[in-house]
Amino acid sequence: MSSPEQTPLASLSLTHVHYNPNDPISYISAFLALAPQALCVIYVTLIWATREIEVFLMFAGQMACEALNFGLKRWIREERPKHMHGKGYGMPSSHAQFVAYFSVYLSLFLLIRHSPTVATSQHSFTFLQRVGISILACLGASAVSASRLYLNYHTQKQVLFGCAFGVLFALFWFSFTSALRNNGWIQWGLDQPIARALRVRDLVVSEDFAEAGWQRWEHLRKLKQREDRDSTRKVQ
Fold this sequence. Notes:
By secondary structure, the chain is mainly α. Helix content is 65%, strand content 0%. It has helices spanning 24-32, 35-50, 53-76, 94-113, 127-150, 156-182, 185-190, 193-197, 214-235. Helix 1 (24-32) packs across helix 5, helix 4 (94-113) packs antiparallel against helix 5 (127-150) and helix 5 packs antiparallel against helix 6. The protein is globular. The chain starts with 23 loop residues before the first helix and ends with a helix.
């Protein structure tokens, strides 16, 4: 068995990003390259914490989009820019395709599918707020895509095709999940024993984000305050 001094070290390519340490934009671009990994952590966290079927469906589409990118790269077999130090094919850009799918699907959900039935609070999640979040998501996706060009990981064509495939797949997957909902398949799945055992639910479509649980919390808080006042009076 060789000693650590004799064993050559390797780089974990999943997070290893080449950038110019003397260039602030290059430095920021290196962090933007980690957006897909960060979004996957967010997906898994939300699925575990909320058990929302809509989050699971979006994540399933995200993974299917990644599988599509994997197949396209090995079918097209176009190399990355000549001065790129990384490995693998570059057409289409997986980063651009990933964030394009995410931003478009999220925007479609917020602007079309999400229709809260309760909006009684001044803190309710308004349509303009949903438009604002959609715009921010698209701007973020644009920044990640631009970073791939700036770091010389992809050509402009590779990034544009990645964005195009991500947008098209988001439109397809949103239509597909809409068909599942309209034909009762989502409700059928939620009624299955395994979904019941895992407590999978479908509230985020109709429940206002800001109101979710807030009114229940306010009721419990006021009840606790009333009980504390009653206890104080009894002591006195």
